[in-house]
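Table S2 (continued). Query chain:
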Amino acid sequence: MSTTSRPRVGPLATSPGPAPALDVDALLDDRTTGIIVCCGSGGVGKTTTSAALALRAAERGRKVVVLTIDPARRLAQSMGIERLDNVPRPVAGLRANIKGNRRGGSLDAMMLDMKRTFDEVVESQATPEKARQILENPFYIALSSSFAGTQEYMAMEKLGQIHADAQAQGTYDLIVVDTPPSRSALDFLDAPERLSSFLDGRFIRLLLTPARGPARLMTAGLGVVTNALNKILGTQVLSDMQTFVSAFDTLFGGFRQRAQKTFELLQADKTAFLVVAAPEPDALREAAYFVERLGEDDMPLAGLIVNRAGPVPAGTLSADEAMAASARLRKREPTSLTAGLLRLHADQTRVVEREALLRSRFAAAHPQVPTAVVPALPGDVHDLAGLRRVGQLLGGAEG
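Corresponding output:
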C-alpha cells in the first residue's frame, strides 16, 4: 500500500457495502511509511496491537521503535524487558530467518515518562541556571506531573524527539505510537494547543506582568487583583506561580513551534493512523468518531482494526438450527452433552453474526476505510510468541 493510496476520510455514504480489506503487511513493508499511530478508546487492545505491529515490522526488516503510554506496563512483560522507561531499549528474540522475512530488522521499546520528557524539554531550551529555577519550582513540579493534557502533550513531544533523532542519526525507519488511553477520543491531537494556550493565557500573562517592567505594574488595579489572588491561592502559591511563569516565559514560543511541527508531522503522508476498536457498539461508535475527526484534521488514515472478534465456529449449522436440535435432544436426554455443545454453537454463531452486522454498519457509513479483523485469542498475550501470533493475524493469517 503506498502512502498516496491511503484514504483521507471523505463524506459518509448512504448505501451499505463490504469494507475493503486492510493489507497490514503492505503498510509495514512500505518504506515511505515512517510513523504508525494506533488510536482508539480505552480497553480495545491498542497496546498489544502496537507491540504486535512493531514486532512484525521488525521481523520483516524494518528498524522499529515502539512508544507506549500504557500505565499497566504490559508491553515490557510481553517484550521480555525488565523495565521500560523513557529510553528506548532493545528487544531480544527477534526472528529474522522465517519465511517472508528479511534480515536487518531491529526493535526497541520505550514507555513515556511524562515528567522526564517535560524536564528534557526545559533542559534543552533554557540555560542551566534558568532550567534549575524551573525544575525546582513547586508549581512546575505539579504542572509536569498531573496537569490535564500534559501526558498527551508529552506523548507528541516525545514522538517529535524520536523522529528528529531518527532523521539525524538513521536509528529507526519506523516509529509505532500507542496513544494515551484518553476518555475523549483524540485528546492527544488537542493537547499541544490546550497546554500552550494555558501557558499563554490571560491569567498566566497577568502573573507574568511583574517581570516585565515595574513602571507599568504598580497600578491600583493590579494591586487589587494581586491581593485577591493572594487570598484565594495563598501568598506562597502565587509567588511560586509568578516565579515559574517568569522563568518559563522564554520557552513559550518553543512550545507553540514544536506543537505545530508535530501536528504537521502527523498530517504528512509518511504517517499512517490505525483506529483500533473492539466489535462492540460503543467501541465502534468511538471508532467512527475517530475516523471523522481524523478526516476533519486531514490526518492520513490507513484503516480500522477490529480487535478480539469472536471466532467463527466450525460447521455449517445456523444458530436457529443448532438451538432447535439442542431442544430436541434435551427433551429426550436432559443432561445431554451434545445438546449443551449445540447451545454453545448457537450462542457463538449469534455473537459472530451480531459483530458482522456492527462491522457492516460501520462499513456502510465509512466505505473508504479498509478494515482488518483480528479474532480473539484464547488467553492473554504475555510474551513475544503471543505478540507474533497477533501480528500473523493482523497480516491475514487464519484465526
